[in-house]
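Subject: for your reference before the review

Hello V.,

The reviewers asked for a structural picture of the protein, and I figured it would be easier to keep everything in one thread rather than splitting it across files. Below is the amino acid sequence we used in the manuscript, unchanged from the supplementary table.
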Amino acid sequence: MRFRIPPQLKETVTVVRQDAFVRSNVMTIAEDVVCLISPESDLIRLASGVATGGTGWAALLEKPNENIIDGDILRRADGKELTIHRVRPLGDTMVLELRGDEIP
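And here is what came back from the structure prediction:
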């Protein structure tokens, strides 16, 4: 069973990956990914017990996609790009922790 996102909160995004050798080469990993992007202001990353930063935003996917990995780029319909910092399983779906300068 997949997670249901209310229609008014759904957002359709594309996930791309940059080539490791030629950064201008971009490969599409997943298209028409339905998700809910929400603030995660209390989410803090720890490394050996030391806070190293907060991601600030998370994308809850309506259905999981195993091709998405850390470092991929989530491209929104308005052209803004957010880096996927971490992929976490959540029941039958996934949560993507995001980093980006501006998210409305």
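For the response letter, the relevant points are probably these. The mean pLDDT is 83. The two ends are 30 Å apart (CA to CA).

Happy to draft the paragraph if you're swamped.

O.
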